[in-house]
Amino acid sequence: MTCTILALCGSLRASSSNRALLETAMSLQPAGLKIELYDGQAALPHFNPDLETAGVLPNPVLPSEVIDLRQRVRQADGLLIACPEYVHCLPGSFKNLLDWLVGCPDFPGKPVALFQATERHEYVPAMLRDVLTTMSAEILDVACFMLPATTNQIDQTWIEKQPALCDEMGRKLEAFAHRIAPKAP
């Protein structure tokens, strides 16, 4: 049986090192694991608690972009997140995505692995863990990975030319797959 991971990139940049890290993970996905990259972050409306009360007049339906995000999270067996740091904080667009997931009934208990594109980000790793823990995610430390890059000017080709890093990423993805695989009764 194949497990599905929804990859969430905290950056909107097409040439983001975090996106490159997630795309490399997709190229290294072990047998039994399918990683899908979520690309709808830029289209999400600004979080508004009034819209969160979908089904209650005068807001009978959540925005379609939010419905899509929540369906993708519901269908995923786990989440793989790579997020940059902007001015010592989470990027606003990514925080907006997380805000929309707070009211998602399928998010609590969702297994999460955190991949970090550079060790230079001093604040976001702890901040992201705090936010996700508050949201009741299950952060799987055994599957978390930090690329020991000292620059954020990296791409998938650069990462794939680092065999030791790719081996380590592969082991982390296998550990993630092992932890989220359905257990036999």
Automatic annotation (TrEMBL):
The keyword Oxidoreductase applies. InterPro entries: Flavoprotein-like_sf, FMN_Rdtase-like_dom, NAD(P)H-dep_reductase. Its EC number is 1.-.-.-. One of its GO terms (molecular function) is oxidoreductase activity. It is an enzyme of class 1 (oxidoreductase). The keyword Oxidoreductase applies. Residues 4-148 form the NADPH-dependent FMN reductase-like domain. It holds the Pfam family FMN_red. Keywords: Oxidoreductase. PANTHER family: CHROMATE REDUCTASE, NAD(P)H-DEPENDENT FMN REDUCTASE LOT6. This is NAD(P)H-dependent oxidoreductase. It comes from Roseibium algae.
